[in-house]
Amino acid sequence: MAKKDFYEVLGLQKGASDDEIKKAFRKLAIKYHPDKNQGNKEAEEKFKEINEAYQVLSDPQKKAQYDQFGTADFNGAGPGTGGYGGFDGGAGGFDFSDLGDIFGSFFGGGFSQGGGTRRNGPERGNDMEYSINLTFEEAVFGVDKEISITRSENCETCHGTGAKPGTTAKTCSKCHGAGRIRVQRNTPLGNFVSEATCDKCGGKGKIISDPCPDCHGSGAQRKKRKITVKIPAGVDTGNVIPLRGHGEHGKNGGPTGDLYINIRVMPHKIFKRQNFDIFIDTHVSFADATLGIEIKVPTIDGDVKYTVPSGTQPGTRFRLKGKGVPRVNGSGRGDQYVRVIVDIPKSLNEKQKEALRMFQEASGETNEDDSKKSSFYDKLKHGFK
What we know:
The protein has helices at 6-9, 18-32, 41-57, 60-69, 83-86, 100-107, 136-141, 286-291, 350-362, 368-384; strands at 111-112, 128-134, 143-154, 170-171, 180-187, 190-197, 206-207, 220-231, 240-243, 259-265, 272-274, 277-285, 293-297, 304-308, 317-320, 336-343. The protein is an alpha+beta fold. Helix 2 packs antiparallel against helix 3. It starts with 5 loop residues before the first helix and ends with a helix.
C-alpha cells in the first residue's frame, strides 16, 4: 500500500510553515468532522487521514524525519499501520488545544477533558437608556427633572427566589444546581465531553415546585418607578449622564445595572451655541454704525449695554467675556460673541437722497460714472505723454 503524502492530504506544499499546517488542519477538520457528516464513511476516512497527517507535521521531530526520509515511523508504527499514526483512541500525546473551538461549534458547548462545571452564579442586571429633551435655558443653567421608567425588579413577594413564601426551591437533581450538564460524545478521536444547558431546570439550577403567585416563579416583576435626575449646568446635545444602580435588578443576588440619560437640547430662537460659547446677531442702522451708538444686547443673564464705536463695519464681531455657558464640572464660563449687521435701506425718499448727496459732496466723493470717465482720460493722457 502506497504511503500517503501528508502535505498533499492537508492541501499544502512541502516545507509549509507551522501556521500554514495548523490553519489547513483546522479548516479540513471542520469540513470533514464526523459529527457534521454523520453516516458519511468517506468523510470519516478523510477525517482520519487529515488527523494522521497533522499529528506528524505538527510535531517538529516527526516532521523533520518525515521531510528527510518520507516516513515518521520511529517504532514500526508508521503511517497507515493503524491508530492514526500512533493515536490510540486516548490523548496519545496529541495537542487537543487546537481542536477546542472546532468541537465547541459541533457540540454546542465548550470542549473539555475533565474539570468542573460552571455554577449558576449571580448575574448583573441589564443597563437602561432614557432620553430627555431640555430647553436651551435648562441646559445652560441646569435643572432637576423627574422621569418615569419601567424596569425589572426582584419580586417583592418572594424576594427574587421565585418560590411561594414559606416554600423553597429544590436543587435540580440532574445538574446538581450547576445549570449545566456534561454531554459525552464518542468520536474517532476518542471520548469528548462538552457542556450544555440543563434541560430539566432550564439552566436555573433549581426546581420550583410551588411558584410565587405574583411573579409565577420568575423571581422578577416589571415595575414603574419615578426618578429625579439632576441635570448639571452646561450640558449639551449628545451628553450622557450615568445613574449608577438605577437599571434593572440582577439575578441570583447579582448587582443592579445602570441607567444612562441621553441629553437632547432644543434650539433657541436667538442664541446659537458652539461648545461653551454663545453667538448672536444684532442689527444697527447705517447711520448708527457710522456715528456710533449705545445698544442693549440680550444675554442668557439678561440685557447688557454695549457701545458700538463709530465707523463699525458690517460683520464686525465683538466679545462679551464670561457671558457664555458654564463649563460642566469645571470652572468659569464661555463667552458671548455679537456680530453687527448693518441694515442698508432699500428705498429712500427725496429728502434722504439729497442728504446723502450732500454727504458725498462733503466727503469729496464724485458720481461713479464721472469717476470712471475721469480715470479713463487720465490714463489716455498719460499714454500720449
